[in-house]
Design a protein that fits this description.
Elements: E1 31-34, H1 41-49, E2 53-57, E3 65-71, E4 96-101, E5 109-116, E6 121-127, H2 136-144, H3 146-159, H4 170-198, H5 204-215
Parallel strand pairs: 1-2
Antiparallel strand pairs: 2-6, 3-4, 4-5, 5-6
Helix pairs in contact: 4-5
């Protein structure tokens, strides 16, 4: 996202997303859903120490040591302890729940390996959510909610004017960001209300046209 929105926690497209992470001590009792651009195993360790929770996607280059392995039902898998992650023999549709460790990094981390249909490759999620409370399937399901955040920002930029303004003034930029969000909420409300009245599903892109007509 272009612009200067870092005071709102929104990073410009030209800069690394990692620079805009909240500090680990700020996320106590909070769950962060983070894509591979944020991957940082030290951050996961510090978040856990401060009572925060993360589900973080990793890149495909990681290769930690396996300390324990379980299937999606929580049953132990024999023969993987002591091996490297890249030594996993993979079957599509399989989910493997691992405890892993990096030699040069502190802590033991929970890693969930799954088959990513969109990329036709193995995907990895790091989390500190407890296995007894959150199964591997549940963690994957929770991470899937992050896509709604992506769609939210896409809609803000494409249909609510967030990408069209250019200012370095903090007060002006903040006002325009909030205006964009309020515009989006109004369009969603109109789409939802119209859909209920007419017993149909109306997308927010169509409600954009309705909003323009109302403003005319």
């Amino acid at each position: 996202m272009s612009g200067h929105y870092n005071y709102l926690g929104i990073s410009p497209d030209s800069e690394s997303e990692r620079h805009y992470n909240p500090f680990a001590y700020e996320i106590q009792d909070t769950l962060l859903l983070m894509d591979a651009g944020y991957f940082n195993i030290d951050y996961c360790y510090q978040a856990d120490k401060h009572g925060g929770h993360v589900i973080m996607r990793t890149n495909g280059k990681i290769n930690p040591d396996i300390k324990a392995a379980f299937d999606s039902q929580g049953l132990a898998i024999e023969g993987l302890i002591g091996k490297k992650l890249k030594q996993l023999k993979w079957h599509r549709e399989q989910i493997i729940d691992l405890d892993v460790q990096w030699k040069s990094k502190p802590g033991t981390h929970r890693l969930i390996a799954f088959w990513d249909r969109n990329k036709s490759a193995i995907g990895y999620l790091i989390t500190n959510l407890k296995r007894a409370q959150f199964s591997a399937d549940k963690v994957s399901e929770l991470y899937g909610l992050r896509w709604q955040i992506e769609l939210f920002f896409k809609e803000l930029k494409s249909y609510s004017g967030l990408k069209t303004f250019n200012t370095r003034d903090k007060s002006i930029a903040e006002s325009l960001v909030w205006a964009s969000m309020l515009t989006l909420l109004l369009k969603r409300f109109i789409a939802r209300a119209s859909g209920l009245i007419h017993q149909v599903t109306i997308s927010t892109t169509k409600s954009r046209t309705v909003c323009k007509r109302l403003a005319a």
